[in-house]
Amino acid sequence: MHVFVAGSTGVLGRRVVPALVAAGHRVTALTRRAEAAAGLRAQGVAVAFADVYDREALIRVVTEAGPDVVMHQLTDLSTADLAANARMRDVGTRNLVDAARAAGVRRIVAQSIAWAYEAGEDPADETTPLDDAATGPRRGTVDGVIALERAASELPEWVVLRYGLFYGPGTWFAVDGIKAADARALRLPVGRDVSSFVHVDDAAAAAVAALDWPSGVVNVVDDEPATADEWVPAFARAVGASSAGAVHAPHAHWARGADNHFARKHLNWTPAHLSWRSGFDTI
Q1: pLDDT tens figures, 107-162
Q2: Which of 34, 53, 78, 226 could bridge 230 with an S-S bond, Cβ 3.0-4.6 Å?
């Protein structure tokens, strides 16, 4: 297949591009940074230059590339600005889908998240509604996810990957990541909030596999949702921080984790890192 990768230089895109090449796919990588071109071309991929907020330019480069599939790995999290990332999910996705449609592309694989579900006591599966009643800062995140997923589903064939929290090199949950700094400053809250994780290499492998998956949403998470009381001390130890004295947070009922049963049973996807318990030791 010819895959057009938007977000090719991000934490996931940097893994997806070489994985696609290794699997025998032809790749066109989107970037707006001229300095990224040499590294991308060295991997044997074509490079397209455009800003995703420039709708007309994006339509032009996707049409010129003529791919079979658009892969959406766009984020805007380098400064931990959640509002900017929500805008990317909303406006950036809208422009990318419009470009795909204008180019006659039938299929999209898009990056979403597994913590936008409505409140509940058990880990959410793919039939659980999204939290469209969210309030406060969470509202912007959820609205961005809803906009992204609705836009992606306009194409005839679409797969939305609802990822757990990424950990591993280059992510927030790495030795030199934002969350490691929080752990060392005793800012990581403990409590009953449940999270689901996925190693970033497993996330990339799922993106490549999703080229052949049926349309729909898929939770891409490891096998063990866990409370912050469980995972925070383990993560702190993994990054050389003290787990003592971490702040306690009130329980948010939406923080319920996610279930990967569908991907395991129906798509034959199994994470190489089955649990954050052993996975944290690799970072």
Answers
A1: 999 999 999 999 999 999 999 999 999 999 999 999 999 999 999 999 999 999 99
A2: 226
Would you say residue 47 has pLDDT above 70? yes
The reported pTM is: 0.96
| Strand, coil or helix: 96 | helix
Exposure on the CB side of residue 32, measured as CA atoms within 13 A: 9
The DSSP code for 28 is: E
Q: How far apart are CA 220 and CA 261, in angstroms?
A: 10
Interatomic CA distance for residues 94 and 247, integer angstroms: 39
Instruction: Note whether 4 and 62 are within 8 A (CB).
Output: yes
| String of DSSP letters for 195-253 | E-EEEHHHHHHHHHHGGGSPSEEEEE--S--EEHHHHHHHHHHHTT---TTPPB-PPPT
- Choosing among 3.40.50.2300, 3.40.50.720, 3.30.70.260, 3.40.50.970, the CATH entry for 2-168+198-221+259-273 is 3.40.50.720
